[in-house]
Amino acid sequence: MAGPDIDRSRRSFLATAVAIGGSIGLSACLGSESAPDIPQGTADPASAPERQHAWNDVLRTDDHGNHVPPRHRVLLLLELQQDGPPEEGARETIDTALRSLERAYERSPAGLLFTVGYSPAYFERFEESLPAGIDLPDPRALAPFEEPALDRPDAVLHLASDHAEAVLGAEEALRGNEATANGVTMDAHLGGVFEVVERRTGFIGEGLPQEHADTEGIPDSAPMPEDAPMFMGFKSGFTHSQASEDRVTIDAGPFAGGTTQQLSRLVLLLDQWYEQDSRYHREASMFCPHLAQQDAIEGDGSNLGDTGGVQRCPAHSDDALAETATAEGIVGHSEKMLRARDEDGPRLLRRDFNSTDDGRAGLHFLSLQKRIADFVAVREAMNGTDLADSTPVGQRTNNGILQYFDVESRGNFLLPPRGLRALPTPRGVPDQG
Fold first, then answer.
1. Helix axes 4-20 and 164-175, enclosed angle (nearest 10)
2. Which pTM does this prediction carry?
3. Quick one: which of 387, 94, 282 has its CA closest to 395?
4. How far apart are CA 214 and CA 207, in angstroms?
5. H helices then E strands: how many in the chain?
6. pLDDT tens, residue by residue, 321-342
7. Phi then psi dihedrals of residue 11, to 5 deg
8. What span, in angstroms and rounded, lies between the C-alpha atoms of 6 and 312?
9. Which of 146, 297, 295 is nearest to 228 (CA)?
């Protein structure tokens, strides 16, 4: 039986292989003595849910019922290799490639989960417009202190699995570099239709951040909990801080069953977080001063169950939050997010993950929501500009976690229902079967 040191070494090796990518990364994974037996998919891909983003039914859960996200991720930003709207032949090629992938891998974290989304720039290729009920604006800066690059590729493909071998094998097959994926022949690939213009990678899960802490943005002395799933040392994705898949699903029109996806690339700046800030300050900044004062947070915060302790933070209104900021000189990220909820609860379903792309500690913040306007509202609450204007907290300093990251890029995408995922028109295309 492998010991903990061997397990940690393999986890680190696999995440590094995903970051390297290509045939080198895939060969390294498959050449390992402990390469997993990845389950193949179904001979009837049409049996998959119509919602591309319907992952929760196959995700594992922890002891508190929180969904456990797939550990390894690849994002491929794609551009069509033709001008104007895509031709029907291109649509058939993409549909065939994606269905081949579904035959190759079981729809689960043990196999592969994936989505494909399309940007406003893609839909500008057509003469007709998206239906009025679809909220998919061009990306823009959403805070007075950020200047992100605006991502406008035609599409983005998100690959996720607990196994590095799966995301790398799927990527190589989709690029046309491998004729098979997980032992299944690929009947088509993306080449000739799409060009990969950027590749982003990452990971999330117990122990992975510490094993990749030797990167720019993480000080050598970082007191990161050994089992922390994120670079900032705390757990995220508590069930009661997440929107349900139903909540984020478009419920009418040709794209009913789809959703919108927001993708931001954040660069983490954690030298002060770990070298100057106390444990109390980190807890107060991430959650709220009340929880920090009560010593309620153990380790990475897993003891907070399925709520993240947010119901115990007193600031549930603008006035209460301003009172906390004035009295404590600091306001927490989680308690600010309470203001962004509406009568149906949280608006966003987060599926973000850490990264060491370009040798820097980062976060690919990927969220799903019914409308991009929902993400904008949440980001405005997170900015806390009203608090900076009326309380001792600064626009970024002591204002949640704003001072510990920069937004490098941002993009908006529409994730159509599964039957429309292969190069949809603004008004939808028939299901290919």
1. 20
2. 0.94
3. 387
4. 13
5. 14, 14
6. 999 999 999 999 999 999 899 9
7. -60, -45
8. 40
9. 297
Distance CA 90, CA 96 (A): 10
Taking the C-alpha atoms of residue 179 and residue 188, their distance in angstroms, rounded to an integer, is: 9
CB 413 within 8 A of CB 137: no
Are the CB atoms for 250 and 259 separated by under 8 Å?
A: yes
Q: At what angle do helices 164-175 and 88-104 cross, to 10 degrees?
A: 150
pLDDT band at 6 (very low <50, low <70, confident <90, very high): very low
pLDDT tens, position by position, 77-96: 999 999 999 999 999 999 99
DSSP tag of 353: E
Q: Measured at the alpha carbon of residue 156, what is the angle toward residues 154 and 160, in degrees to the nearest 5?
A: 170
**How far is residue 41's CA from residue 44's CA, in Å, rounded to a whole number?**
9
CA distances from 220 to 212, 215, 227, 356 (A): 11, 9, 17, 15
Q: Write down the H helix ranges in 176-218.
A: 208-211
Beta bridge partners of 246: none
Cα separation of the two ends of the chain: 45
